[in-house]
TrEMBL record:
Membrane topology: Multi-pass membrane protein
Keyword line: Membrane, Transmembrane, Transmembrane helix
Entry similarity comment: Belongs to the amino acid-polyamine-organocation (APC) superfamily. Cationic amino acid transporter (CAT) (TC 2.A.3.3) family.
Cellular compartments annotated: Membrane
Lineage top rank: taxon: Eukaryota
Protein name (Swiss-Prot/TrEMBL): Cationic amino acid transporter C-terminal domain-containing protein
Keyword Transmembrane helix: yes
Organism expressing this protein natively: Brassica carinata
Lineage of the species this protein comes from: Eukaryota, Viridiplantae, Streptophyta, Embryophyta, Tracheophyta
Recorded GO MF terms: amino acid transmembrane transporter activity
GO cellular component: plasma membrane
Residue ranges crossing the lipid bilayer per the database entry: 62-82, 94-115, 127-147, 159-177, 189-207, 214-235, 255-276, 297-319, 346-371, 392-410, 416-437, 449-469, 475-496, 508-530, 536-554
Pfam family, one: AA_permease_2
Sequence ranges assigned to domain Cationic amino acid transporter C-terminal in this UniProt record: 509-559
Amino acid sequence: MEVTSSNNGGHSSFSSFRVYLTSLSATPSRFSRRAIYVSTSSDEMSRLRSVPGEHMRRTLRWYDLIGLGIGGMVGAGVFVTTGRASRLYAGPSIVVSYAIADLCALLSAFCYTEFAVHLPVAGGAFSYIRVTFGEFPAFFTGANLIMDYVMSNAAVSRSFTAYLGTAFGVSTSKWRFVLSALPDGFNEIDPVAVLVVLAVTIVISCSTRESSKVNMIMTAFHITFIVFVIVMGFLKGDSKNLTFPAKTEHPSGFFPFGAAGVFNGAAMVYLSYIGYDAVSTMAEEVENPVKDIPVGVSGSVAIVTVLYCLMAVSMSMLLPYDLIDPEAPFSAAFRGSDGWEWVTKVVGIGASFGILTSLLVAMLGQARYMCVIGRSRVVPVWFAKIHPNTSTPVNASTFLGIFTAALALFTDLNVLLNLVSIGTLFVFYMVANALIFRRYVPVGPTKPWPTLSFLTLFSITSLVFTLIWKLASQGSLKAFMLGASAVVAIAIVLIFQCVVPQANKPELWGVPFMPWTPCVSIFLNIFLLGSLDAPSYVRFGFFSGLIVLVYLFYGVHASSDAEANGSFVVKDGQVLKELTEV
Protein backbone atom coordinates (compact mmCIF):
# COMPACT_ATOMS: atom_id res chain seq x y z
CA MET A 1 0.00 0.00 0.00
CA GLU A 2 1.52 3.35 -1.06
CA VAL A 3 0.60 6.81 0.08
CA THR A 4 0.03 9.50 -2.53
CA SER A 5 -1.01 12.48 -0.51
CA SER A 6 -0.36 15.77 -2.21
CA ASN A 7 1.98 18.35 -0.80
CA ASN A 8 2.83 21.26 -3.06
CA GLY A 9 2.11 19.11 -6.05
CA GLY A 10 4.06 16.09 -4.85
CA HIS A 11 3.88 13.03 -2.66
CA SER A 12 4.41 13.41 1.08
CA SER A 13 4.10 10.97 3.92
CA PHE A 14 4.34 13.82 6.43
CA SER A 15 1.67 16.26 5.20
CA SER A 16 -0.51 15.40 8.21
CA PHE A 17 -0.48 13.06 11.17
CA ARG A 18 -3.24 10.98 9.64
CA VAL A 19 -1.34 10.56 6.38
CA TYR A 20 1.79 9.64 8.34
CA LEU A 21 -0.04 6.89 10.23
CA THR A 22 -1.29 5.55 6.90
CA SER A 23 2.27 5.69 5.59
CA LEU A 24 3.50 3.54 8.47
CA SER A 25 1.28 0.72 7.26
CA ALA A 26 3.25 0.81 4.00
CA THR A 27 6.59 0.45 5.81
CA PRO A 28 7.19 -3.24 4.89
CA SER A 29 6.68 -2.70 1.15
CA ARG A 30 8.68 0.52 1.15
CA PHE A 31 11.48 -1.05 3.15
CA SER A 32 11.72 -4.04 0.81
CA ARG A 33 12.04 -1.67 -2.15
CA ARG A 34 14.21 1.12 -0.75
CA ALA A 35 16.49 -0.71 1.70
CA ILE A 36 18.52 -2.41 -1.02
CA TYR A 37 18.11 0.36 -3.59
CA VAL A 38 21.58 0.82 -5.09
CA SER A 39 22.52 4.25 -6.36
CA THR A 40 24.90 4.70 -9.31
CA SER A 41 28.17 6.60 -9.42
CA SER A 42 26.69 9.13 -11.88
CA ASP A 43 23.73 9.70 -9.54
CA GLU A 44 26.05 10.38 -6.60
CA MET A 45 28.26 12.76 -8.60
CA SER A 46 25.52 14.63 -10.42
CA ARG A 47 21.87 14.23 -9.47
CA LEU A 48 22.31 13.96 -5.70
CA ARG A 49 24.98 16.64 -5.70
CA SER A 50 22.47 18.98 -7.35
CA VAL A 51 19.78 18.46 -4.68
CA PRO A 52 20.75 21.45 -2.48
CA GLY A 53 21.24 23.75 -5.50
CA GLU A 54 24.62 25.22 -4.50
CA HIS A 55 27.83 23.20 -4.88
CA MET A 56 30.99 22.91 -2.82
CA ARG A 57 33.95 24.53 -4.60
CA ARG A 58 36.95 22.46 -5.73
CA THR A 59 39.76 24.39 -4.00
CA LEU A 60 41.93 21.74 -2.26
CA ARG A 61 45.20 20.14 -3.43
CA TRP A 62 47.22 17.13 -2.24
CA TYR A 63 49.18 19.18 0.31
CA ASP A 64 45.91 20.40 1.79
CA LEU A 65 44.81 16.77 2.17
CA ILE A 66 48.08 15.76 3.83
CA GLY A 67 47.79 18.71 6.19
CA LEU A 68 44.17 17.88 6.99
CA GLY A 69 45.06 14.20 7.46
CA ILE A 70 47.94 14.92 9.83
CA GLY A 71 45.93 17.53 11.70
CA GLY A 72 42.94 15.21 11.98
CA MET A 73 44.85 12.18 13.22
CA VAL A 74 47.73 13.33 15.39
CA GLY A 75 45.81 15.37 17.96
CA ALA A 76 43.26 12.69 18.81
CA GLY A 77 45.65 9.77 18.68
CA VAL A 78 48.59 10.89 20.76
CA PHE A 79 46.97 13.27 23.19
CA VAL A 80 43.72 11.46 23.97
CA THR A 81 44.05 7.70 23.62
CA THR A 82 47.75 6.92 24.12
CA GLY A 83 47.91 7.46 27.87
CA ARG A 84 44.72 5.53 28.59
CA ALA A 85 45.62 2.62 26.30
CA SER A 86 49.13 2.33 27.77
CA ARG A 87 48.06 2.59 31.41
CA LEU A 88 45.09 0.22 31.22
CA TYR A 89 45.87 -2.23 28.41
CA ALA A 90 49.27 -2.39 26.70
CA GLY A 91 51.95 -0.85 28.89
CA PRO A 92 55.20 -0.13 26.99
CA SER A 93 53.99 -2.36 24.13
CA ILE A 94 51.69 0.50 23.16
CA VAL A 95 54.21 0.96 20.33
CA VAL A 96 53.22 -2.43 18.93
CA SER A 97 49.56 -1.53 19.41
CA TYR A 98 50.08 1.51 17.22
CA ALA A 99 51.88 -0.58 14.59
CA ILE A 100 48.92 -3.00 14.42
CA ALA A 101 46.40 -0.19 14.28
CA ASP A 102 48.46 1.48 11.58
CA LEU A 103 48.50 -1.64 9.39
CA CYS A 104 44.73 -1.89 9.72
CA ALA A 105 44.32 1.82 8.97
CA LEU A 106 46.64 1.76 5.97
CA LEU A 107 44.78 -1.16 4.39
CA SER A 108 41.46 0.57 5.05
CA ALA A 109 42.93 3.79 3.64
CA PHE A 110 43.69 1.97 0.38
CA CYS A 111 40.04 0.88 0.18
CA TYR A 112 38.84 4.43 0.86
CA THR A 113 41.24 5.84 -1.71
CA GLU A 114 39.99 3.64 -4.56
CA PHE A 115 36.41 4.65 -3.83
CA ALA A 116 37.27 8.34 -3.39
CA VAL A 117 39.18 8.50 -6.70
CA HIS A 118 36.32 6.95 -8.67
CA LEU A 119 33.54 8.56 -6.63
CA PRO A 120 34.82 12.01 -5.57
CA VAL A 121 31.87 13.13 -3.46
CA ALA A 122 31.54 14.34 0.12
CA GLY A 123 29.67 11.26 1.34
CA GLY A 124 32.66 9.06 2.20
CA ALA A 125 31.68 5.63 3.48
CA PHE A 126 27.96 6.45 3.14
CA SER A 127 28.25 6.98 -0.61
CA TYR A 128 30.60 4.02 -1.10
CA ILE A 129 28.20 1.61 0.55
CA ARG A 130 25.12 3.19 -1.05
CA VAL A 131 26.44 2.43 -4.54
CA THR A 132 27.36 -1.10 -3.42
CA PHE A 133 24.91 -2.57 -0.91
CA GLY A 134 22.01 -0.15 -0.95
CA GLU A 135 20.31 2.63 0.97
CA PHE A 136 19.69 1.03 4.36
CA PRO A 137 23.20 -0.47 4.84
CA ALA A 138 24.61 2.90 3.78
CA PHE A 139 22.45 4.84 6.24
CA PHE A 140 23.22 2.37 9.04
CA THR A 141 26.95 2.75 8.37
CA GLY A 142 26.91 6.49 7.77
CA ALA A 143 24.82 7.26 10.85
CA ASN A 144 27.13 5.12 12.99
CA LEU A 145 30.12 7.01 11.63
CA ILE A 146 28.49 10.36 12.36
CA MET A 147 27.93 9.17 15.92
CA ASP A 148 31.62 8.20 16.01
CA TYR A 149 32.60 11.67 14.91
CA VAL A 150 30.37 13.36 17.44
CA MET A 151 31.63 11.12 20.28
CA SER A 152 35.25 11.52 19.16
CA ASN A 153 34.97 15.29 18.91
CA ALA A 154 33.34 15.51 22.33
CA ALA A 155 36.17 13.38 23.78
CA VAL A 156 38.84 15.48 22.08
CA SER A 157 37.34 18.76 23.26
CA ARG A 158 37.25 17.51 26.87
CA SER A 159 40.89 16.50 26.57
CA PHE A 160 41.63 20.02 25.34
CA THR A 161 40.47 21.29 28.73
CA ALA A 162 43.00 19.04 30.49
CA TYR A 163 45.92 20.22 28.34
CA LEU A 164 44.89 23.85 28.46
CA GLY A 165 44.93 23.61 32.25
CA THR A 166 48.39 22.08 32.06
CA ALA A 167 49.63 24.92 29.84
CA PHE A 168 48.49 27.52 32.40
CA GLY A 169 49.38 25.45 35.45
CA VAL A 170 45.74 25.07 36.50
CA SER A 171 44.19 21.77 37.62
CA THR A 172 41.47 20.33 35.40
CA SER A 173 39.10 20.36 38.38
CA LYS A 174 39.29 24.16 38.34
CA TRP A 175 37.91 24.23 34.80
CA ARG A 176 35.11 21.75 35.49
CA PHE A 177 32.48 21.43 38.19
CA VAL A 178 30.55 18.41 39.44
CA LEU A 179 26.78 17.98 39.56
CA SER A 180 26.07 15.27 42.11
CA ALA A 181 22.52 14.80 40.80
CA LEU A 182 23.87 13.26 37.58
CA PRO A 183 25.23 9.68 37.40
CA ASP A 184 28.98 8.96 37.41
CA GLY A 185 30.54 9.43 33.99
CA PHE A 186 28.07 12.22 33.19
CA ASN A 187 28.43 14.54 36.16
CA GLU A 188 31.58 16.57 35.34
CA ILE A 189 30.47 19.75 33.54
CA ASP A 190 33.07 21.15 31.13
CA PRO A 191 32.13 24.64 29.78
CA VAL A 192 35.57 25.14 28.15
CA ALA A 193 35.00 22.13 25.87
CA VAL A 194 31.67 23.62 24.80
CA LEU A 195 33.23 26.97 23.88
CA VAL A 196 35.96 25.26 21.85
CA VAL A 197 33.46 23.17 19.86
CA LEU A 198 31.28 26.18 19.11
CA ALA A 199 34.30 28.24 17.99
CA VAL A 200 35.45 25.50 15.59
CA THR A 201 31.88 25.23 14.28
CA ILE A 202 31.98 28.89 13.29
CA VAL A 203 35.34 28.46 11.53
CA ILE A 204 34.31 25.44 9.42
CA SER A 205 31.05 27.13 8.46
CA CYS A 206 32.89 30.10 6.93
CA SER A 207 35.10 28.44 4.28
CA THR A 208 36.71 25.07 3.59
CA ARG A 209 39.75 26.70 1.99
CA GLU A 210 40.23 29.06 4.91
CA SER A 211 39.70 26.17 7.32
CA SER A 212 42.50 24.33 5.51
CA LYS A 213 44.81 27.34 5.90
CA VAL A 214 44.04 27.58 9.61
CA ASN A 215 44.68 23.84 9.93
CA MET A 216 48.03 24.10 8.07
CA ILE A 217 49.23 26.86 10.41
CA MET A 218 48.20 25.03 13.58
CA THR A 219 49.55 21.71 12.26
CA ALA A 220 52.94 23.31 11.55
CA PHE A 221 53.12 24.54 15.15
CA HIS A 222 51.87 21.18 16.37
CA ILE A 223 54.50 19.13 14.53
CA THR A 224 57.19 21.44 15.94
CA PHE A 225 55.95 20.64 19.43
CA ILE A 226 55.78 16.91 18.59
CA VAL A 227 59.43 16.87 17.55
CA PHE A 228 60.26 18.73 20.75
CA VAL A 229 58.39 16.17 22.89
CA ILE A 230 60.07 13.25 21.10
CA VAL A 231 63.53 14.75 21.65
CA MET A 232 62.82 15.55 25.30
CA GLY A 233 61.48 12.07 25.88
CA PHE A 234 64.61 10.44 24.56
CA LEU A 235 66.85 12.86 26.46
CA LYS A 236 65.09 12.66 29.83
CA GLY A 237 63.66 9.16 29.50
CA ASP A 238 65.08 5.91 30.83
CA SER A 239 65.04 2.66 28.84
CA LYS A 240 64.38 0.77 32.09
CA ASN A 241 60.84 2.14 32.01
CA LEU A 242 60.19 -0.01 28.92
CA THR A 243 60.36 -3.17 31.03
CA PHE A 244 59.96 -2.27 34.74
CA PRO A 245 56.85 -0.77 36.38
CA ALA A 246 57.06 1.65 39.31
CA LYS A 247 55.37 -0.82 41.68
CA THR A 248 56.68 -4.37 41.81
CA GLU A 249 53.22 -5.84 42.34
CA HIS A 250 52.24 -4.73 38.82
CA PRO A 251 53.06 -6.93 35.78
CA SER A 252 56.52 -6.27 34.32
CA GLY A 253 58.19 -6.67 30.93
CA PHE A 254 57.66 -4.98 27.59
CA PHE A 255 54.37 -6.90 27.25
CA PRO A 256 52.99 -6.67 30.82
CA PHE A 257 49.46 -7.64 29.78
CA GLY A 258 50.45 -10.09 27.06
CA ALA A 259 49.22 -10.25 23.49
CA ALA A 260 45.63 -9.57 24.60
CA GLY A 261 46.72 -6.25 26.08
CA VAL A 262 48.48 -5.29 22.85
CA PHE A 263 45.35 -5.89 20.78
CA ASN A 264 43.08 -4.22 23.35
CA GLY A 265 45.37 -1.20 23.14
CA ALA A 266 45.31 -1.32 19.34
CA ALA A 267 41.52 -1.30 19.36
CA MET A 268 41.47 1.80 21.56
CA VAL A 269 44.15 3.78 19.70
CA TYR A 270 42.44 3.01 16.40
CA LEU A 271 40.46 6.15 17.15
CA SER A 272 43.70 7.89 16.18
CA TYR A 273 43.15 7.09 12.52
CA ILE A 274 39.62 8.36 12.07
CA GLY A 275 41.17 11.51 10.59
CA TYR A 276 41.92 9.97 7.20
CA ASP A 277 38.26 9.10 6.81
CA ALA A 278 37.52 12.81 7.20
CA VAL A 279 40.00 13.50 4.40
CA SER A 280 38.02 11.22 2.08
CA THR A 281 34.93 13.38 2.66
CA MET A 282 36.88 16.31 1.14
CA ALA A 283 36.95 14.53 -2.26
CA GLU A 284 34.18 16.73 -3.64
CA GLU A 285 36.33 19.79 -2.94
CA VAL A 286 39.61 18.47 -4.42
CA GLU A 287 40.83 20.00 -7.69
CA ASN A 288 42.34 16.79 -9.09
CA PRO A 289 40.90 13.74 -7.26
CA VAL A 290 42.83 11.15 -9.31
CA LYS A 291 46.26 12.53 -8.36
CA ASP A 292 45.62 14.35 -5.10
CA ILE A 293 43.53 11.84 -3.10
CA PRO A 294 45.96 8.85 -3.17
CA VAL A 295 48.86 11.09 -2.15
CA GLY A 296 46.83 12.93 0.47
CA VAL A 297 45.26 9.91 2.18
CA SER A 298 48.14 7.42 2.06
CA GLY A 299 50.78 10.08 2.64
CA SER A 300 49.11 11.43 5.77
CA VAL A 301 48.67 7.93 7.23
CA ALA A 302 52.35 7.08 6.59
CA ILE A 303 53.65 10.30 8.16
CA VAL A 304 51.38 10.00 11.16
CA THR A 305 52.44 6.39 11.74
CA VAL A 306 56.07 7.42 12.21
CA LEU A 307 55.07 10.22 14.58
CA TYR A 308 52.80 7.94 16.61
CA CYS A 309 55.42 5.25 17.13
CA LEU A 310 58.14 7.72 18.09
CA MET A 311 55.86 9.50 20.55
CA ALA A 312 54.71 6.20 22.06
CA VAL A 313 58.34 5.18 22.67
CA SER A 314 59.08 8.62 24.08
CA MET A 315 56.14 8.46 26.51
CA SER A 316 57.01 4.92 27.61
CA MET A 317 60.60 5.96 28.36
CA LEU A 318 59.57 9.02 30.36
CA LEU A 319 57.56 7.10 32.97
CA PRO A 320 56.79 3.50 33.96
CA TYR A 321 53.43 2.59 32.46
CA ASP A 322 51.72 2.40 35.87
CA LEU A 323 52.54 6.07 36.56
CA ILE A 324 51.27 7.43 33.23
CA ASP A 325 48.42 9.92 33.54
CA PRO A 326 45.55 8.63 31.33
CA GLU A 327 44.16 12.15 30.83
CA ALA A 328 47.35 14.06 29.89
CA PRO A 329 50.23 11.55 29.66
CA PHE A 330 52.95 13.71 28.11
CA SER A 331 52.64 16.91 30.12
CA ALA A 332 52.12 14.99 33.37
CA ALA A 333 55.36 13.09 32.76
CA PHE A 334 57.38 16.26 33.46
CA ARG A 335 55.25 17.45 36.37
CA GLY A 336 57.14 17.46 39.67
CA SER A 337 60.57 17.03 38.03
CA ASP A 338 63.18 19.54 39.21
CA GLY A 339 64.02 21.96 36.43
CA TRP A 340 61.57 20.40 33.99
CA GLU A 341 58.28 22.03 34.99
CA TRP A 342 58.54 24.42 32.03
CA VAL A 343 58.34 21.43 29.67
CA THR A 344 54.90 20.62 31.07
CA LYS A 345 53.59 24.00 29.95
CA VAL A 346 55.21 23.67 26.51
CA VAL A 347 53.66 20.23 26.04
CA GLY A 348 50.30 21.57 27.14
CA ILE A 349 50.44 24.34 24.53
CA GLY A 350 51.53 21.92 21.78
CA ALA A 351 48.87 19.39 22.67
CA SER A 352 46.24 22.13 22.62
CA PHE A 353 47.21 22.98 19.03
CA GLY A 354 47.04 19.32 18.04
CA ILE A 355 43.67 18.80 19.64
CA LEU A 356 42.27 21.88 17.90
CA THR A 357 43.45 20.64 14.47
CA SER A 358 41.98 17.17 14.98
CA LEU A 359 38.73 18.73 16.14
CA LEU A 360 38.59 21.03 13.11
CA VAL A 361 39.19 18.24 10.58
CA ALA A 362 36.78 15.80 12.21
CA MET A 363 34.04 18.41 12.37
CA LEU A 364 34.60 19.16 8.68
CA GLY A 365 34.12 15.44 8.00
CA GLN A 366 31.02 14.89 10.12
CA ALA A 367 29.23 17.84 8.48
CA ARG A 368 29.88 16.48 4.99
CA TYR A 369 28.56 13.06 5.93
CA MET A 370 25.36 14.61 7.23
CA CYS A 371 25.09 16.82 4.14
CA VAL A 372 25.24 13.88 1.72
CA ILE A 373 22.84 11.78 3.79
CA GLY A 374 20.50 14.77 3.57
CA ARG A 375 20.88 14.78 -0.22
CA SER A 376 19.63 11.19 -0.28
CA ARG A 377 16.54 12.36 1.69
CA VAL A 378 17.00 9.68 4.36
CA VAL A 379 17.28 12.58 6.80
CA PRO A 380 15.68 16.00 6.17
CA VAL A 381 17.06 17.69 3.07
CA TRP A 382 17.60 20.77 5.27
CA PHE A 383 20.92 19.20 6.26
CA ALA A 384 22.06 19.22 2.61
CA LYS A 385 21.91 23.02 2.26
CA ILE A 386 25.11 24.56 0.91
CA HIS A 387 25.55 28.24 1.76
CA PRO A 388 25.79 30.28 -1.48
CA ASN A 389 28.59 32.52 -0.17
CA THR A 390 30.77 30.10 1.79
CA SER A 391 30.05 26.91 -0.24
CA THR A 392 29.95 24.94 3.03
CA PRO A 393 27.20 22.69 4.50
CA VAL A 394 26.25 25.31 7.05
CA ASN A 395 23.13 23.62 8.45
CA ALA A 396 24.82 20.26 9.01
CA SER A 397 27.86 21.99 10.55
CA THR A 398 25.72 24.01 12.96
CA PHE A 399 23.46 21.15 14.03
CA LEU A 400 26.29 18.69 14.66
CA GLY A 401 28.38 21.37 16.35
CA ILE A 402 25.63 22.02 18.88
CA PHE A 403 25.09 18.27 19.38
CA THR A 404 28.83 17.73 19.95
CA ALA A 405 28.99 20.64 22.39
CA ALA A 406 26.10 19.19 24.38
CA LEU A 407 27.88 15.84 24.76
CA ALA A 408 31.21 17.48 25.57
CA LEU A 409 29.53 19.43 28.35
CA PHE A 410 28.93 16.46 30.64
CA THR A 411 30.10 13.07 29.23
CA ASP A 412 33.23 11.39 30.64
CA LEU A 413 36.18 10.66 28.31
CA ASN A 414 36.20 6.89 28.91
CA VAL A 415 32.49 6.53 28.02
CA LEU A 416 33.10 8.36 24.74
CA LEU A 417 36.27 6.51 23.67
CA ASN A 418 34.89 2.98 24.03
CA LEU A 419 31.88 3.79 21.88
CA VAL A 420 33.96 5.51 19.19
CA SER A 421 36.34 2.59 18.66
CA ILE A 422 33.65 0.00 17.95
CA GLY A 423 31.79 2.19 15.48
CA THR A 424 34.95 3.13 13.59
CA LEU A 425 36.04 -0.49 13.23
CA PHE A 426 32.59 -1.47 11.98
CA VAL A 427 32.56 1.24 9.31
CA PHE A 428 36.02 0.33 8.03
CA TYR A 429 34.96 -3.32 7.93
CA MET A 430 31.96 -2.40 5.77
CA VAL A 431 34.05 -0.33 3.32
CA ALA A 432 36.50 -3.23 2.78
CA ASN A 433 33.56 -5.58 2.05
CA ALA A 434 32.06 -3.00 -0.33
CA LEU A 435 35.32 -2.75 -2.29
CA ILE A 436 35.48 -6.52 -2.91
CA PHE A 437 31.82 -6.55 -3.94
CA ARG A 438 32.35 -3.69 -6.40
CA ARG A 439 35.39 -5.33 -7.95
CA TYR A 440 33.93 -8.84 -8.37
CA VAL A 441 30.22 -8.30 -9.09
CA PRO A 442 29.39 -7.13 -12.64
CA VAL A 443 27.28 -4.01 -13.09
CA GLY A 444 23.67 -4.70 -14.12
CA PRO A 445 21.30 -7.60 -13.49
CA THR A 446 23.50 -10.40 -12.24
CA LYS A 447 23.77 -12.91 -9.42
CA PRO A 448 26.06 -11.61 -6.67
CA TRP A 449 25.83 -14.77 -4.56
CA PRO A 450 29.38 -16.10 -5.18
CA THR A 451 30.88 -12.86 -3.87
CA LEU A 452 28.36 -12.49 -1.04
CA SER A 453 28.95 -16.10 -0.01
CA PHE A 454 32.69 -15.51 0.03
CA LEU A 455 32.38 -12.34 2.13
CA THR A 456 30.08 -14.14 4.58
CA LEU A 457 32.31 -17.20 4.91
CA PHE A 458 35.46 -15.15 5.32
CA SER A 459 33.86 -12.93 7.97
CA ILE A 460 32.58 -15.98 9.87
CA THR A 461 36.02 -17.60 9.75
CA SER A 462 37.64 -14.39 10.99
CA LEU A 463 35.07 -14.20 13.78
CA VAL A 464 35.77 -17.82 14.78
CA PHE A 465 39.51 -17.06 14.92
CA THR A 466 38.80 -14.00 17.08
CA LEU A 467 36.55 -15.89 19.50
CA ILE A 468 39.10 -18.69 19.89
CA TRP A 469 41.82 -16.12 20.56
CA LYS A 470 39.72 -14.33 23.15
CA LEU A 471 37.90 -17.17 24.92
CA ALA A 472 39.92 -20.40 24.61
CA SER A 473 42.36 -21.40 27.36
CA GLN A 474 46.07 -21.29 26.63
CA GLY A 475 47.60 -24.52 25.36
CA SER A 476 48.31 -26.65 22.35
CA LEU A 477 44.60 -27.10 21.56
CA LYS A 478 44.15 -23.33 21.26
CA ALA A 479 47.20 -23.08 18.99
CA PHE A 480 45.84 -25.88 16.80
CA MET A 481 42.39 -24.26 16.49
CA LEU A 482 43.92 -20.87 15.66
CA GLY A 483 46.15 -22.44 13.02
CA ALA A 484 43.23 -24.39 11.54
CA SER A 485 41.10 -21.22 11.36
CA ALA A 486 43.91 -19.33 9.65
CA VAL A 487 44.38 -22.11 7.08
CA VAL A 488 40.65 -22.17 6.36
CA ALA A 489 40.57 -18.38 5.92
CA ILE A 490 43.52 -18.44 3.50
CA ALA A 491 41.96 -21.35 1.58
CA ILE A 492 38.67 -19.45 1.23
CA VAL A 493 40.47 -16.44 -0.27
CA LEU A 494 42.54 -18.62 -2.63
CA ILE A 495 39.47 -20.48 -3.90
CA PHE A 496 37.58 -17.22 -4.42
CA GLN A 497 40.52 -15.67 -6.26
CA CYS A 498 40.79 -18.67 -8.60
CA VAL A 499 37.08 -19.21 -9.22
CA VAL A 500 35.59 -15.70 -9.39
CA PRO A 501 37.22 -13.27 -11.87
CA GLN A 502 37.36 -9.54 -11.32
CA ALA A 503 34.44 -7.93 -13.14
CA ASN A 504 35.34 -4.27 -12.69
CA LYS A 505 39.01 -3.35 -12.77
CA PRO A 506 39.65 0.31 -11.90
CA GLU A 507 40.78 2.60 -14.70
CA LEU A 508 42.33 5.32 -12.54
CA TRP A 509 43.68 4.02 -9.22
CA GLY A 510 43.13 0.64 -7.60
CA VAL A 511 43.98 -1.24 -4.43
CA PRO A 512 46.89 -3.63 -5.11
CA PHE A 513 46.90 -7.39 -4.50
CA MET A 514 43.16 -7.97 -4.76
CA PRO A 515 41.40 -9.54 -2.91
CA TRP A 516 44.11 -10.01 -0.27
CA THR A 517 44.48 -6.38 0.80
CA PRO A 518 40.81 -5.77 1.71
CA CYS A 519 40.58 -9.31 3.16
CA VAL A 520 43.40 -8.57 5.60
CA SER A 521 41.60 -5.33 6.45
CA ILE A 522 38.37 -7.26 7.09
CA PHE A 523 40.19 -9.75 9.32
CA LEU A 524 42.01 -7.08 11.35
CA ASN A 525 38.85 -5.03 11.85
CA ILE A 526 36.96 -8.10 13.12
CA PHE A 527 39.89 -9.08 15.31
CA LEU A 528 40.11 -5.63 16.87
CA LEU A 529 36.34 -5.59 17.35
CA GLY A 530 36.74 -8.77 19.38
CA SER A 531 39.19 -6.98 21.67
CA LEU A 532 36.60 -4.50 22.93
CA ASP A 533 34.66 -4.95 26.16
CA ALA A 534 31.01 -5.96 26.52
CA PRO A 535 29.70 -2.50 27.55
CA SER A 536 31.02 -1.13 24.23
CA TYR A 537 28.78 -3.57 22.38
CA VAL A 538 25.81 -2.68 24.56
CA ARG A 539 26.22 1.01 23.70
CA PHE A 540 26.79 0.18 20.02
CA GLY A 541 23.65 -1.95 19.98
CA PHE A 542 21.66 0.82 21.61
CA PHE A 543 22.67 3.47 19.08
CA SER A 544 22.31 1.02 16.19
CA GLY A 545 18.76 0.33 17.35
CA LEU A 546 18.03 4.05 17.33
CA ILE A 547 19.41 4.31 13.79
CA VAL A 548 17.14 1.48 12.61
CA LEU A 549 14.13 3.18 14.20
CA VAL A 550 14.95 6.50 12.52
CA TYR A 551 15.11 4.76 9.15
CA LEU A 552 11.85 2.84 9.66
CA PHE A 553 9.88 5.79 11.03
CA TYR A 554 11.36 8.54 8.86
CA GLY A 555 14.09 7.66 6.36
CA VAL A 556 12.36 5.00 4.28
CA HIS A 557 9.25 7.18 3.91
CA ALA A 558 11.17 10.36 3.05
CA SER A 559 13.26 8.61 0.40
CA SER A 560 10.13 6.93 -1.01
CA ASP A 561 8.50 10.36 -1.29
CA ALA A 562 11.58 11.72 -3.05
CA GLU A 563 11.50 8.79 -5.47
CA ALA A 564 7.80 9.33 -6.21
CA ASN A 565 8.27 13.08 -6.68
CA GLY A 566 11.27 12.67 -9.00
CA SER A 567 13.25 14.93 -6.66
CA PHE A 568 16.60 13.54 -7.79
CA VAL A 569 15.99 14.17 -11.47
CA VAL A 570 17.86 17.03 -13.14
CA LYS A 571 18.42 17.99 -16.72
CA ASP A 572 20.69 15.77 -18.76
CA GLY A 573 22.86 18.74 -19.67
CA GLN A 574 23.53 19.44 -16.00
CA VAL A 575 24.44 15.78 -15.43
CA LEU A 576 26.94 15.94 -18.29
CA LYS A 577 28.41 19.15 -16.91
CA GLU A 578 28.93 17.67 -13.44
CA LEU A 579 30.55 14.50 -14.77
CA THR A 580 32.82 16.56 -17.04
CA GLU A 581 34.01 18.58 -14.03
CA VAL A 582 35.10 15.36 -12.32
